[in-house]
């Protein structure tokens, strides 16, 4: 370790030089330029989560790695922005070799948990307990090339969605799409629709958590081209009927918070929005739209391929690590058991949806 050291900093303590080094290392790693692994995202989380930190790995005074994380009680660590981050890990020089437990010790962590670790994270992938599929849409060849593939892989999907868009225009009013909307009311509407969806399906309402709402607001007002929030809105008859708030870099758009007004559900405004958004993204230089892990029928229709992401944890020996295993591993094992059995997983979703319906009565 001669000439090497690890500094732990708050994300807002990183200056322009560190941001530049972080991004150069990210490019050198050859991974997709996912905005969740950009210093701007880490800095935004740092403003809403006091436990956010970044470990800076230095070699002879030069940064050769950045490890963003959150530190909780008893040294329990999580990926930065855990709960809403769709791409996690460390940004390292390709030649770095380091025992991850040594890294955790320098950060004062007894464990570090991840649920969307990107592929190629050689430090952490050996500690994964599950491999998940994260569907993506490739737009390298342009939108026309993509729709040709879509017609071949999902016959009727494109035709039916466009027919519903025409019906929406006839029955509700002019359909208008804004790719980069600066509309606070539309963002508020999106949050209301999404909260209602979470409750209706029996899932935890993310927008009931103040830090997530504040994080989205911060990113919505950002203007860094390497990582910024993007609000896309579909209007019909002058009112928003569907919206999506995502995070984008110059080449990658992460599908994050989509929702629509259920009063217009028969027109499938969410799918209309999605096709419009893919077309506009392709024209704006986006080459990949990451739809995120988790099952959804529309993702199967739209995807062109899948990335691999991982779930698991690095745990150090000692009381803190033992406490993590006792508190977290049994629940994680049950979750894996259910998710690996489609009929059981379907039954679980139905129970959650019924619980949500009863709660909203």
From TrEMBL:
<protein>
    <submittedName>
        <fullName>GNAT family N-acetyltransferase</fullName>
    </submittedName>
</protein>
<feature type="domain" description="BioF2-like acetyltransferase">
    <location>
        <begin position="159"/>
        <end position="299"/>
    </location>
</feature>
<dbReference type="Pfam" id="PF13480">
    <property type="entry name" value="Acetyltransf_6"/>
</dbReference>
<dbReference type="InterPro" id="IPR038740">
    <property type="entry name" value="BioF2-like_GNAT_dom"/>
</dbReference>
<dbReference type="InterPro" id="IPR016181">
    <property type="entry name" value="Acyl_CoA_acyltransferase"/>
</dbReference>
